[in-house]
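I am writing to request your help with a piece of structural work I have in hand. Thank you for your consideration; the sequence and its tokens are set out here:
=====
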Amino acid sequence: MLTSTAYRFTTAGSLEANPTLLRQRASVALSIAPTGTTFLTRREGEMLAHYLVFPGDMADEPINAAKAVAARCELTDAPDLSASAAVAVLRMPADGVPGSNPQMNAEIAAVVDAASSALRDGEWVACAIRKPSTGEVVAHSKWLSQYGVNTHHSKEANAVILSLWSGADSTGQAESLLQQVAGALPGFDMPRRAGSVTPASTRLAFGGVAVAGAGYALAPQFVEVVLPYPQLGWVATGVGGAGMALSLLDKLPSRQKKIRQKLALGLVPVASRRIVPAAGARPQKMNAEGVITQTARNAAYPLNNEGYLVGAISPLTLVAPHAGAQSGGGTTATRSVPPQLISALGPLFGYGPGGQPVHLTDEGDWRGLVALGEAGSGKSVLLQGVWGYDAARKTGQVSRPTGSFNAQVAFDTKDGRTAAEYIAWSEAAGQPILRTPDDLTAWLAGDKKVAPVVVLSVADQTATLGVELFPGKGDSMNRARRAVNALKYVFGAQSIGPESFATLSRVLVGAFAVTDKIATEAEVETGRSAFFYAGILLGTRGDEKGVRLAEAIRSAGERDGNADALTAAGVLAPVYDPKVTAAARSRLTQAPQNKMEQMLAAEQWWSRPSRPAWASLLEANASIVVDFGAKDGFLMDAEQREQLASLMLYTLHEEIKLHCVGWQERNRLVSIYADELKHIAGTSPEVINWARQDGRSFGVRLVVATQEPEQLEDSVRKTVMGLGTLVAFRQADATVIRAVLDNISVDGTDWEAKDIAQLTKYHAIVRTHDGGTPLTAFTVRLAFVTAMRGEEFLTAQNAIAGVGATTPTWAAPAAADAGISFATFDPDAKDA
């Protein structure tokens, strides 16, 4: 009879800082560990529990393992893991290629940190080990060598075969856990894929027997064939059917059943030796005519695909109780969740100290949300979950009284990963993804029943879809004024003095008046942006070209009756009157040249052939994802990204003021998401302060995050910290900690600086409201919503309302009722 002995590990000191000594201790510990020894981390409420479980009676064996990870061990009952609805195992892909991480300077606590951010109550991740055979070690070494990997942790003394397992409430979550934890394992640079373990193969086999038997018995009735003993077909059908029934009732031996028996004892299976040897390497061969008769191939992975040969440190990472408060002895005071938020109609975003789900409230969601915290603390995951919830509200997958009309605008000014998540969430909600002018045209030609996601890939040098930031035809004076004001927002009023302001205004009036005909006459490129032509008028390409373009503008006004060009010629006179010398002109244009050259660095963006205006996209209830991530090896520098993002936000707010009057009264939102606020805030507090203080009537709602609030302009920082919901992740800056303490303690609740400084990853302190009523701040563990995306996410959101998904509410008739018009949404127009 299978038995087990379990020990629970808790912190007894600090981990050994010397990596060489750490590997030696790990090697000693594993040298005496029997086959099937299981290393386990499981979430139990708000804590992570760490277990070392031996098969059989191993009363004296845990001491060395405990010493290796600076833990104390205590004999305990074996944890029962069999209740997990889904169990998954990590497998090596058939075509996997190894990396070369030697496990030097391995961060042993990183795995538990990864587990702490991903595990939900009752979920677990565990590995089992065995010693490899000499043949397995030799074959594995040869397999590595064929890829040029000669130094690897699997070649250390006392390396072991490791099998990694997980258990969760759903298949997707179990597989996601494996990928996250494996990615954090020290030196675990092997290819991997996660797969769930089910009895499907047994049932399919019996089903195949039943179908084949029935086919054999019935064949003579359909074709002219004589088969001996047709009754045997019915016997096979009966056997197959009975086998399927017994399998469904869990009455037959199966791998899954054996695994469940082990799980009940706190054990997980370890990979057995491979029965059939792996295919060996072979060289390429050619015949005398030079024709390849045999293609070359590397040797296949030599081990069972559920086993990985790893250094001794890897298994011990799962029992290292060094994840701060997660692994015992928490230092952040836990505070209960206000009961209103347990049943609130709003996005699920975390779990309270008792494990209860926590929802923000939709009522008054225009009040906005800000997340503060260090890099990697959980801010981006929070924003992605809110975006996903809003997308589901928008399409009717989540039934709510508000949210159908919500023009979402997201700025990803980092690496593009957050943008990809936003797109994935919207796609899961059923929104069409539009990346090109052709996509826009196709959507416009359809029924337009589901609002689209418009993806603007700013760094993509081949993209043809952009957005017109200064719309209007025949209105160069007004467009120039708006452009110069936007530049002041980006560069700062002090950076653009009165003389530079005047010169920029003049050349931009001229630039917006340039048509293809004028450009051709001036012998400059056609189809370029206003910034391009303004640069020429500022002399960035020589005085002669500037003079020629100014003369072409004047000629178009006088000769062709072009009123816009005639106005522009008059405005340009102080710079390009024939009486103005080149030297005098240079004195006027030299200072603003630098600003224009910085804009010209993004000319590919400015001159994209298809540029619908912000107003058109807002009216279409579109979700807009502005992605500044690298594309095809090209990445804008940080300064350029911030300048362009700030300019885009400024022009968006101008269009909102013009076109979204009264939207809040009509339950229409414009939600602006930014996972790094300082990248879009510019040098002036104007836009952010307007959005918080005056944007409500226009439906504006901020959902923003920043890891460096201390770098924000003072009034911007005060503004965002006054948003309706503040989510404070771990902070290190003393000034920010004091500001957060003042914010969450306004009702007299006692919080300390250490409560913020010692928050663990994906944990936060939240100050929010119930509609208009402020609520006492509380602690929360962020929900890992990425693993829930799909049915699990929708079920969790709709569970509060007690309803399922509904028919999408955003349809053409409703759009007409809300005053939405598609007439101006022209993907081929530069000026909408």
The longest helix spans residues 638-659. The CA atoms of residues 3 and 590 lie 84 Å apart.
